[in-house]
Amino acid sequence: MSAISIYAEASPNPESMKFVLNSTLLPDGVSVDYPTLETAANSPIAQELFGFDYVGRVFIAQNFVTITKTQPELGWTSIIPELRQFIKSYVEAGGTLFTVDPAAEQKAAQAASAGDPTQQDGFTSQKIIDLLDNYVRPAVEQDGGNITFKSFHDGIVTVNLQGSCSGCPSATVTLKSGIENLLKRMVPEVKEVVAEGILV
């Protein structure tokens, strides 16, 4: 395994920090969000990260890990070095990241939540997914999070916010002024965008 370099990058959420690697952890467009230790059953590295008593959420995407801490009084400067060292050592040693391929899991989850939409809803949903993937997700990933499409029904788009977006003070503003406006402009059938995963 070649040497891993890793750096920390602040996100708009003061409680979340993005750790960017020069190594691919997941295929582009695939990400996993673990809001609790129990949800991280598929990821040994996430389980280990939850072993740090201040880690409250772990989000993993193509080449970064976003960690959200549970102790606002704990400054990042004191914990970044140990988190960075842990992730670097784990990946360099070839530690198991996932026990089940998250790409396959994600496909199965999307198929399950799609239900049986009408043909028109299916067409509109695909347009929404394409817009989210091409215009919204890259920007959200820059901030250490992710947005996934959940459903489109009666003009309402439901999305899931993950990683640093969950609990971010500006998430609701971004959702309404940015994402909702974009989708309404590009897809006339959209009346509103609501999100799951925003922790207040």
UniProtKB/TrEMBL annotation:
<dbReference type="InterPro" id="IPR014824">
    <property type="entry name" value="Nfu/NifU_N"/>
</dbReference>
<dbReference type="InterPro" id="IPR036498">
    <property type="entry name" value="Nfu/NifU_N_sf"/>
</dbReference>
<protein>
    <submittedName>
        <fullName>NifU family protein</fullName>
    </submittedName>
</protein>
<dbReference type="InterPro" id="IPR034904">
    <property type="entry name" value="FSCA_dom_sf"/>
</dbReference>
<dbReference type="Pfam" id="PF08712">
    <property type="entry name" value="Nfu_N"/>
</dbReference>
<dbReference type="InterPro" id="IPR035433">
    <property type="entry name" value="NFU1-like"/>
</dbReference>
<dbReference type="Pfam" id="PF01106">
    <property type="entry name" value="NifU"/>
</dbReference>
<dbReference type="InterPro" id="IPR001075">
    <property type="entry name" value="NIF_FeS_clus_asmbl_NifU_C"/>
</dbReference>
<comment type="similarity">
    <text>Belongs to the NifU family.</text>
</comment>
<feature type="domain" description="Scaffold protein Nfu/NifU N-terminal">
    <location>
        <begin position="6"/>
        <end position="94"/>
    </location>
</feature>
